[in-house]
Design brief:
4 copies of one chain form a homotetramer. By secondary structure, chain A is an alpha/beta fold. Chain A is built from 14 helices and 14 strands. In chain A, strand 3, helix 4 and strand 4 form a beta-alpha-beta unit. The first copy, chain A, is globular and about 60 Å long. The first copy, chain A, starts with 7 loop residues before the first strand and ends with a helix. Chains A, B, C, D: Soluble hydrogenase catalyzes both production and consumption of hydrogen from suitable artificial electron donors or acceptors. This subunit catalyzes the tritium-exchange activity.
């Protein structure tokens, strides 16, 4: 039997698309070579730069997925056979490394624990150990590991690269952080920062977005791999006049403009980041109240966009997820790959507010109980409410302290 | 600052319009004299009869509001000057009586307490006392008082009319019950049962709907007041072929078809009623856990579509409502007229599920705390969860016992 | 077999709802007692006044149909039994008079030819002949007869009333003219000007709109018929704060705001009127090129919103309409009542441009040929094109001459 | 000043997205790892196979553009350095060859005239001349050249390959033909047939679609270029259960299901092809009536999805296009690259009917006149009407004869 009312889509992306954005896309296709379209492009790109935290960078949009963003970030700046330093601390950092291998790069993949952040000292150590024969051409970093709920400190990683005196490119995956957790492309001196449309940007899937540093642009001018679809040169060239070298995903771009209005012009990015921090703290307080463990090992790396919750020994997280979906219309994220059955993930990114979080937490509690995991009904909800009813000033103070 | 994510519209109507219904209405207007339109009408009317609980009755649809439904129910069967028996047990029963007076009827309006149901014995007593000079031509009953959260027992009222041996018409307002609480037009031998589109039918406002008994139809053929827009005769005549005597609200009718598919064909009406009972029990358990009072005096008349909660002496329910809206994006119903400031109303009708109720209850708790009304955070949510996690079989058993 | 592509809905209303307006309505219902809603009301009313051509008048909106607008215009200002002067020069003027009779008024209905305008001298003569015993309390005028395609000169009728020295109220139906042909409520000193949402305002059906003079307002304060739903007093009172005394048709009001933005703020009303004149001239040139007759007798009263085309003796206009619909996806208006089978009507009002008119004319030509009415293919299209390719300056000159 | 009413988007893609399809996409995102999504995939793939004309082939969908489809078709089956035979007979065949070069293939690009079809004998001659040292691994064919309006005969090209006794892969671009002109993947023994979503499939841009033969699948298993995003192996593997290896473009897939229902289940593919032939004949008759030249040299290769019209010496097609857009809201396709300014293109593919074609032709006539190109107003419209009013039986007879 189908469930009445609104379903709670609380996977860590795709996220809920606000009605306003759906409406912005529910429109006739326009001629992508006409003046209306050119204006659209010119409105979007500067707003996106704010979201990436860049003045110097160049933003590139592809009609593609986040997987495509990985590929775009590599083939434009790295020649086949070049060496890449990657770290495996979750499903997506593993897949990013695999993508690079599939594309013909020589990938050094350092294993870490899933639940661990990417430690800056590990990066430094590996770069220092580089004997320079086929030196590392790039370091791959996943800012926010969507499989484990860990946000690594990219600023510290940049410092580590500098400390090692290495000039490897810094390529940062911000798929599940951008527009929800602050991204600082310029401050990090990232070379390529990449994301997809279906997470913090509150859009349906279908766009890959990159922010490219001048250094990376230069690499792309002469070097890189043989490429066509992901070649950013013709896109950047045609974007100057507001156009694309091929038919762009017009409706998603209309949606993107609306999303950027909401995030940058109306709510304001610092408020967006503060809201995600506050909602995440509520979820984490609930997990603690339930007596369950956050897969992320250290509190300072807790992700503000999703929380991976470890179920007790003997319990099956897939069963919790099934009950949540079938009985309560609540979609949670599964444990991926090697942590399948051991964790469920609560997404708390994109368009979201306190009451939706409370409904979600209430649903998780009921699904846990019905799956045989003993928690006290209402305990997590109450823990979150206690945070949500703090005075705004307290939250503001907290904001300064907690800023990553 | 606007609030991110989905707002919680939990007033007792208009209710949340499901996306499916919005989509069904987001379409080009069709020719209301063409064959596609005729099919639409012919699909809708039989499904509506099921919702009204009728085989014998005739359903009439007006492009109007619930207020218009009151007028339509009166002017077709009653001549100006005829006497009407009405009872004041809430804002809407009061307005229904005033409507009748405005239209030139001689209304006997019996005062009752707001929070009280309409007692069958009161009806019987007044009808027995009728001296027959200008006998009561009709009795007005509001099935579910939207201002107080009280569902009266229309079956018992019918029995009372019979017991008094009186032949007054029985006119029943089911504006906030139909399609959420079972309505039994035939079993009640109601003469006119009336409603609007924006409550249990999950549509935007804009339609008035009536179910008319053969006896009422006959009255309307020759009697009634001078009338035009609300005259049901030309509508019923043209509906035979699937048309309307004037331009109908085409888009709302497309929405109505979708709503009826969802309620009658997919979820099933008995499941719809059971769902509303279960959600209402959850809300009532929360109110009890908070230590607050339900305005409805007797548990057997608690409404399954809304709950009017009395705030403690010294508190201002308007303040609770303001905080809920401004801080949490939660819309609650105000105390109307003489109970302004003393109650807030939680709507739990239409498209709704457990998690939405938990989010709502969690929001009410926070709004109460922030308005200075002491309640234990999470207590109401937990009370509701305890009911929602009962086994379905228990719910089923309950269903038999609790059926009004 | 269904027809691919976009259907041509060219009946004289409901008209095509632009995508922008559909999107504006494709949204969650809001609380009609909240601040967002109040702002909406306050934005709409002043823009509507511009469309009615009034400074002094008060605009009232009902969730109802055009038929309801007739009733509202009568019951607020006239007491049952009062005498009304009406003229029968088409289906809708006949129905307006019948509505008044149904509501208990004493209607003098003067027969005229269908195809004729309402002659000012007829009005004057009847008012002069008024012996004052039960004097005419109101004169009913249909500005644009939707059944015949005739636009009467309301300014001249006002002069005739003045010339007769009579103080009857002037009630004007502008259902199929408002927002497409200029309406001058103040200049005409109309007492009530009425319309519906589904014509020039480009909305789905569901709203009745009135503009009320101070004199009519005063009448309504004490006089009028027993009334409730159509009583404008509580609406005007609550509108001051942006609210309605009952649940308004919220989504249509969102659509109305968008429509008014398009008409008043973007295109500009004088451009809207000029566009309709130009498109209508194109259609009329086509009718002449086909050798067919316009039902409207005198060119100076040709309607700019629709054209009723008389088919030759022996032909059946219903057959032309059937072929147009089934073969070409083109909806045309039927001949109503006594002219059934003798005319078809081409609607050219609302959201419409030259190319849509050419497609329509091309479709009419093919439907005529396939129904056995001999016309030269392309002849009407060419005649319209010749007008549409005139220099804008010529059109402007024309505009001054042709202004009604 | 913006233009009222519906714009005529008659570029050769993106095409008009029907309201039904927009509605199907105007919906909440679903969990792409949940059962609802799996059903969607399983509904879509078999219907797509019908559109590709295949039983044996495997359909693969990417969230990408048509450009991406080119890349996908190459990198899965060809290793860098392999030799490819391509022909330049228009802008898109030129770009397809350039794509292959960009990806590191050794491309032999045979120049032809723009306006010419791809002659089977040219293919045969080049394959026969292959000395086998680095033999042609693939032949690239653009079925319908969108820049010139020429549909080549892929069946004859297949015969030529066979006649030459060559085993090069046959890779066919059907971007602007599929779902409007019949595509016969199996009968042609094509190895990869590729398209995008924004043409005959009536969707917004954003999907690349491939049909892959068993032989090509096998090549892809072991060979091909280093690849990741466009690697079809994981997609085909996950599609078995209804899923994708990465986040798919969910909303476009909902739209695709609706489009396939309309094309395959409701209208029927043979009717779709017949409709496009009939509409195209109407457009071509108009071009002839205007005395203008079709860029396509031979009538037997005229495209049924677009017509490239050559403007007379001294005229500028960009000016015609500008006037059409600015004065009449009509979007036409420009002359691309080396034929810029010399042709304008009328798209007549996707959701389209006779009246839309007549409106378009009428608009082209007016734009020509206003740009100083002398044509007789109405002449093209009449020529099309004469074809559109032929008896259906004549059309049916024609259908058999004209089938490519």
């Amino acid at each position: 039997m189908s469930i009445s009312g609104r379903h709670f889509l609380q996977i860590p992306g795709p996220t809920n698309v606000p009605d306003r954005i759906l409406r912005a896309m529910d429109r006739p296709v326009v001629d992508h070579r006409g003046p209306e379209f050119a204006e659209l492009t010119k409105e979007i790109l500067p707003l996106l730069k704010e979201v990436f935290g860049t003045h110097e960078g160049t933003v590139v949009i592809y009609p593609s997925s986040g997987t495509g963003a990985w590929e775009a970030a590599l083939v434009n700046v790295l020649s086949p056979g070049e060496r890449i330093l990657a770290f495996n601390y979750g499903h997506f950092s593993e897949l990013f490394a695999r993508t690079a291998r599939n594309l013909g790069y020589d990938v050094e993949e350092v294993p870490l624990r899933w639940g661990q952040e990417l430690p800056a000292e590990e990066v430094e150590a590996h770069l220092r150990a580089d004997d320079g024969e086929n030196p590392y051409a790039a370091v791959l970093v996943v800012h926010n590991e969507t499989s484990t709920g860990v946000t690594s400190d990219v600023g510290a990683i940049r410092d580590a690269i500098d400390a090692a005196g290495h000039d490897a490119l810094l390529i940062v995956d911000t798929v599940s952080s951008l527009a929800s957790i602050e991204v600082k492309h310029d401050e990090w001196r990232a070379d390529v920062t990449l994301t997809g449309s279906q997470k913090g940007l509150m859009l349906p899937p279908g766009l890959a977005l990159l922010c490219v540093s001048p250094r990376a642009l230069e690499r792309g001018t002469e070097g890189g791999a043989p490429r066509n679809f992901f070649d950013w040169r013709p896109i950047i060239r045609d974007n100057e006049a507001g156009f694309f070298p091929y038919t762009p995903a017009t409706l998603l771009l209309f949606g993107l403009r609306e999303a950027l209005k909401m995030l940058v012009e109306e709510e304001g990015l610092s408020n967006v980041y503060a809201r995600h921090r506050s909602l995440a703290e509520g979820v984490r307080a609930a997990v603690e109240a339930w007596g369950l463990r956050n897969l992320c090992e250290k509190p300072e790396f807790y992700s503000n966009t999703l929380t991976a919750v470890v179920v007790p020994e003997g319990a099956d997280s897939d069963e919790v997820i099934r009950v949540a979906r079938e009985r309560f219309g609540l979609a949670l994220g599964v444990g991926l790959s090697r942590i399948k059955g051991r964790v469920f993930r609560i997404g708390h990114l994109g368009a979201l507010n306190e009451l939706e979080v409370l409904g979600t937490l209430g649903g998780v509690e009921m699904a846990l109980i019905e799956s045989g995991v003993p928690v006290e009904l209402g305990s997590g909800v109450r823990a979150a409410q206690q945070l949500f009813t703090r005075k705004p000033t307290e939250v503001a103070g907290d904001q300064d302290r907690a800023a990553v």
